Amino acid sequence: MSIPLDTSGPFMKDYATETLCTWCDNCGDYGIWTAIKQALTELRLHPWQVLLCYDVGCHGNMSDKITAYTFHGLHGRVIPFAAGAKLANPRVPVMAFGGDGASFSEGVGHLVHAIRSNYPIVFVLHNNANYGLTTGQASALTWQGQSMNSSPNGIPERTLPSMDFVFSLEPTFVARSFSGDIPQMTEIFKTAIGHRGFAYVDILQSCPTYNKFATHKYLLEHCKPVGPDHDTSDFKKARAIAVDTSKHIFTGLLYQNKDVPSYYEQLKARQGLKTTAVEEVKKIDVSEWMKEFV
Ligand SMILES: Cc1ncc(C[n+]2csc(CCOP(=O)(O)OP(=O)(O)O)c2C)c(N)n1
Fold first, then answer.
1. Ligand 1 in contact with 141 (CB < 6 A)?
2. Ligand 1 pocket member 67 (CB < 6 A)
3. 128: Cβ below 6 Å to ligand 1?
4. What pTM did the predictor assign?
5. Is 29 touching ligand 1 by the criterion CB < 6 Å?
6. Phi, psi (5° rounding) for residue 225?
């Protein structure tokens, strides 16, 4: 008996582009890129049904290596772009991607308020613990004492405890994976896209060129998926296992609260409306105002 071919799609190849990848050999961005395409395909989302927003950095160069609606913004500013787009058209799943440099220095204020506001978007942290694109300067997440290109004698500051910081803001969704685990990342992205509010996804990303401490091998040896008994609704426990990486780095869906309404759901002016803001502005005739600019 022959098996009928599924011709309905979408397929991984629909997300491909002809642009050559310029990431270093063995860069963790390859794994993250693959998992995103896999997750969107498994959710049966077509490239024209999703918006992928990129920050500036090595990871940001993914914006032209994937077919979808993509947006490549300014360094540290991906969250406001992504949130704005989602609020204008909440029917479209929106994912925002940022490096640890962008997200915990330049754009840290946006991250704080995105978690506080519970914007209904997915945020993926490409956590390679350095500023990759500008050739390996220390970020707030570089391990203390590590010698980096900007600080050959080792960085003096404490490493920012990013997970504790995120949990202190009472997030509604926190997951962690590493760039070598494509099946786990795929599952996490799928769950994150289905989350009601702001989904924070920390991907520990190997950077073979500049990060000589949290290497692919190190991550492979230390990352440990949470077991089936892990209670994702237990905030205290999730925070504790997220923060304590002394023995294992626990990965998987760490915490989810499905009861907190998203920012959009809280907007009184949007309640009960069947239309989106994008549809509504189309009905406004701006031709008279535009004459001022001619
Ligand atoms: C406001 C601003 N500050 C600094 C830069 C320069 N810059 C471009 S990419 C980059 C490093 C990006 O590092 P990260 O955000 O961690 O992403 P990665 O390259 O590691 O993926 C920097 C400092 C910039 N473009 N804009």
1. no
2. no
3. yes
4. 0.95
5. no
6. -65, 140
Q: What share of the chain is helix, strand, coil (3-state, %, to 5)?
A: 35, 15, 45
Whether ligand 1 lies within 6 angstroms of the CB of 34 is answered as: no
Give the fold, CATH level 3, of 26-293.
Rossmann fold (3.40.50)
**Nearest alpha carbon, ligand 1 atom 9:** 57
The domain spans of the chain are: 26-293
For 7, residues 6+ apart whose C-beta sits below 8 A from its C-beta are none
Within 10 Å of residue 190's Cβ, how many Cβ atoms? 16
**Strand ranges of the sheet holding 51-54, from the earlier edge strand across to the other edge:** 69-72, 51-54, 94-99, 122-127, 199-204, 173-178, 249-256, 223-225
Ligand 1 centroid vs 57 CA: distance in angstroms?
Answer: 5
Q: What pLDDT does 9 receive? A: 85
pLDDT confidence of residue 79: 98
Helices within the chain (DSSP H only) = 29-42, 78-88, 100-101, 108-117, 162-168, 182-193, 216-222, 235-243, 263-266, 277-282, 287-290
For ligand 1, pick from 22, 55, 133 the residue to mutate: most ligand atoms within 8 Å of CB. 133
**Binned average pLDDT, 10 residues per bin, the chain of 294 residues:** 71 95 97 98 97 98 97 97 97 98 97 98 98 97 95 95 98 98 98 98 98 97 97 98 97 98 97 95 91 88
Q: What is the pLDDT of residue 37?
A: 98
Residue 54, pLDDT score: 98
DSSP 23-51: SPTT-THHHHHHHHHHHHHHTT--GGG-E
